[in-house]
Amino acid sequence: MYWRLLLLTSLVTVVSTVRLRSDQPTKDWWEHAGFYQIYPRSFKDSDQDGIGDLNGITEKLPYLKDIGMRGFWLSPMYKSPMADFGYDISDFRDIQPEYVTMDNFRRQVAEAKRLGLKVILDYVPNHSSDEHEWFLKSAQRVAGYEDYYVWRDGKPNPDDPSKPLPPNNWLSGFRGSAWQWNDERKQFYYHLFTAKQPDLNFRNPKVVEEMKEILRFWLDLGVDGFRIDSVGCMFEVLPDENGDFPDEPLSGTTQDVEDFAYLEHIYTIDRPGNVEMVYEWRKLLENYRKEHGGDTRILMTESWSSLDIIKPYFRDIRGNEGAQMPFNFRLITELNATSTAYHFKNVIDSWMAIVDENHTANWVLGNHDRSRVGTRFGERRIDGMAMVELTLPGVSVTYQGDEIGMTDVDITWEQTVDPAGCNEGRENYAAKSRDPVRTPFQWDDSSLAGFTSGTNTWLPVGPNYLQVNVKVESSNPKSHLNIFKALMELRESDTFLYGDWRTIAFNEQVFVIVRDLPSSSTYITVVNLGNSVQIINGSQLVKYIPKALSYAIVDGLSSHNIGDSVNTGSIKLQPYEAFVLEAKRPADRMVRAVICDRWLNF
Ligand code: GLC
Ligand code: MG
């Protein structure tokens, strides 16, 4: 590996120019933002009905500011029969009465603007509610609305001619056939999610135009961008000349014929058309800005697919720009409590490989669909995971409650309301239900965690709320919340905004991130992922490193204090200990740090 050393040393010499802050390329507001995801039903109840609402959110916006957020994205607050808790929208232009009124929303946007917070809305183009006016009209074949949804004739049923069979074998993500019989129209309609969420037909130009109008409607109300729900599901395969859709092949991964994983979704997910639609929406946002001025409006896209599918959501080879933030879910899907430092390095580096110099990385550690960070990685790793997320370059996205270390709450079958859980039945609901991550936000140690002053809540409050809440954690300097806040502050410094990055797997157990900027301090995030003591030599991470480093941030159970110094040659980590170290650069040594690549046995 000698040549690597030579190559790296020469590269380092070439790039060792001193750059001052004024030389740094300016960043657009979102490029270094911290975003917060609010799940409206569970954030803060202002009217004692046990359900979160818009005024509750507005009241708590200063909290978002206080923890260093630049903006927030709101899960749906639109009018909805709540079959999928707001992801089944019956009016894309109105507010759910439980969350109160359009005026409350206007006030929220105004208050966010006053505080300097950007507002991103959830945009759900793939489907509407079956109670949406379009669907009611489509079911009645009202002229102009016939093709707003994906309708098909059934297949003849030899056993019972009065009960046609579904057109093909496609499955719903929430279990069972994706086809629902509609007695009025005497046809089946396609629904990837619940039967109360019929898929809109994006092959119909009228639908495309209607959905664009909805973007304009909310832009006019002052929102700063959209998170696009289920972006990879909008276009299904083109039907054959008889109008039939082909069956999907069996995946071979499960014998459960009703489970979504039973099929390989080659005709329904990640089809051509989805990405192109995002390019059109991006153009719409750019044009809107040209006409109306203001800051950049942004798009975030929700796709859980592989990196080759995600990459074109940034941009295609012809230069069409898509979403500024195709969500990076890799920290959720690829890593867990058993992952080694090599896995961490691999997952992070492979994502960075799809982010070119004109685009920005983003890191999502949790959301309303997946088990919480503290449960996935174990509570002892909560601070370490925040350090990983917040010291990597680019944008961070934090799901409400993860900053205080909320964990999944056990929900009984009787308490279960999420259709993903309900449809699995009493025996299996727990494996699929998303209720455990959607419980009320824990504000304080008063009854019902300060979420509501009413007497009940729509999902139970987590039993750990007496310790895990904003009020109690605010007064403890070593709490998850205060460590999170310190990290959010640190990432505003030049090294994190403009610096190079490098990940290092020191060994199986110790994962390291180095951030470096010649004109500023070097920072080294060190996370002990395992349960044994580790001692590492800092000069094996970064060459020409000072003999002593200082602790910039330490995890809550660490015995070190911020500002303490540590001998670079022997950095000791207790089980699960994590910290961010600072290497102050002597004024005469403004060279780029030479980062040692331990992973390649360099
Ligand atoms: C997305 C949402 C999820 C919802 C689904 C259907 O995956 O994040 O909560 O159930 O889309 O809209
Ligand atoms: Mg309420």
Can you put this structure into words, describing what you see?
- The protein has helices at 2-15, 54-66, 102-115, 133-139, 205-220, 274-292, 307-314, 330-333, 341-352, 373-376, 382-391, 419-422, 429-432, 470-474, 480-490, 494-498, and strands at residues 34-38, 71-74, 78-79, 91-95, 118-123, 151-152, 179-182, 187-190, 225-228, 298-301, 325-326, 362-364, 395-399, 500-505, 510-516, 522-528, 534-536, 542-543, 548-554, 565-567, 571-573, 578-583, 594-595.
- With 602 residues, the chain is α/β, with parallel strands linked by helices.
- It folds into three domains: 2-24 and 499-600, Immunoglobulin-like; 34-124 and 328-485, TIM Barrel; 127-199 and 237-269, Oligo-1,6-glucosidase, domain 2.
- The chain has an eight-stranded parallel β-sheet. A six-stranded antiparallel β-sheet has the order 14-15-16-22-19-20. It has a three-stranded antiparallel β-sheet with strand order 6-8-7, with no helix packed on it.
- The termini are close together.
- Bound molecules: alpha-D-glucopyranose and magnesium ion (MG).
- Alpha-D-glucopyranose binds at residues 84, 87, 124, 193, 229-230, 302, 368-369.
- Alpha-D-glucopyranose is lined by residues 84, 87, 124, 193, 229-230, 302, 368-369.
Shape: globular
What is the β-strand count?
A: 23
Average per-residue pLDDT, rounded, comes to 94
Could you give the order of strands across the largest sheet? 11-10-9-5-2-1-13-12
At the first level of CATH, what is the class of the largest domain?
Alpha Beta
Q: How many domains is the backbone divided into? A: 3
What level of helicity do the residues show?
Answer: 10-25%
| Alpha-carbon distance between the two ends | 6 Å
**Quaternary organization:** single chain
* CATH A-level architecture of the largest domain: Alpha-Beta Barrel
Q: Assess the beta-strand content as a share of residues.
A: 15-25%
Outline the biggest β-sheet: 8 strands, parallel
Query: Which fold does the CATH topology of the largest domain refer to?
Result: TIM Barrel
CATH superfamily of the largest domain: Glycosidases
